[in-house]
Amino acid sequence: MEVRQLQIFCILAEELRFTRAAERAHTVQSNVTAQIKSLEHELGVKLFDRLGHRIVLTEPGQRFRQFAIQALNAMEEGKRAVAPDADLSGPLRIGAPESVLAYRLPQIVSTFREQFPRIELVFRPHVGASVFGDLETGKIDFAFHMCDTFPKSLFCSTRLYRERILLLCAPSDDLARQVRVKPTHLAGKNLLLPEHGCAYRSKFERMLSSQKILPGHVTEFSSVEAIKQCAMAGMGIALLPAIAVGRELDQAQCIALRWAGTSLDVSTQLAWHRSKWISPALTAFQDVVRNLLRNQHPAPPGRRSYR
């Protein structure tokens, strides 16, 4: 089994077209076919099914893909580890939800680039549990994730801070004047929510379900900005992190409800695969993140903000 075979297999598994895979691999289509047939012969299984002009991964192919990606990533890490001046250079791939990307990371990126100019930061947006697959296959090195628990058998995590989650409405909404907004006040109300898989949305919906509260229409968005704009336009009650709406609250463009229900807050954590080699570059990024966020979110007396 050769590295080139694994590279071509992973490209074809992503493209699912021989012509596109050949272009990306800078080779001819017949070579892609030959490499895949050779790999299938060595493994003794079919990795792809040919359906006319289309191909799909077989079940063994799907399982093998995870190991192929991990093997290629491990080889790249090995090259970086022994390369001259490798300690503090090369790319770091980081996954984060939109609210973290937009409102937390700019200062982190600015500080990190000043201290480590030869390390390239590559950010990928994610929603909810999709980040676990990217960590497991090595597509990303670190992930910022809003959640209270992590599958500890596969991943390590550092709890960074508690993210305050707010319910918001337009100033004209009747709940804007309510002194104490209880869960029952949301019955029949239209809701503006982030995508499925979002940890604080899941927490909010579990609360509604446990109290048998039926909202009105639920509109789902992939964009924090879209949720804000719709809330300010009076289209419903929005659920968002406080950091995403600071300016709008200061300018009274929207109102944070005086929530009397259970806390909707979640922890933001920095996570990585348990078996991943933590290079000096990864350690440097961890340190910058911790130092900056410790200053922004100091621990209360007698408590630690990290674990």
Description:
The chain is of the alpha/beta class and 307 residues long. The chain folds into 3 domains: 3-81, Arc Repressor Mutant, subunit A, CATH 1.10.10.10; 83-162 and 267-296, D-Maltodextrin-Binding Protein, domain 2 (3-Layer(aba) Sandwich); 165-256, D-Maltodextrin-Binding Protein, domain 2 (3-Layer(aba) Sandwich). The protein contains 11 helices and 12 strands. It has helices at 3-15, 18-24, 29-43, 59-82, 98-103, 105-115, 130-137, 199-210, 224-232, 246-250, 280-296; strands at 48-51, 54-57, 90-96, 119-125, 142-146, 155-163, 165-169, 191-194, 218-221, 237-241, 255-256, 266-273. The chain has a 5-stranded mixed beta sheet. Strands 9-8-10-7-11 form a 5-stranded mixed beta sheet, with helices on one face. Helix 8 (199-210) links the parallel strand 8 and strand 9 (218-221). Helix 1 packs across helix 2, helix 1 (3-15) packs across helix 3 and helix 2 (18-24) packs across helix 3 (29-43). The two termini are 42 Å apart. Mean pLDDT is 86; it is low at 298-307. Keywords: DNA-binding, Transcription, Transcription regulation.
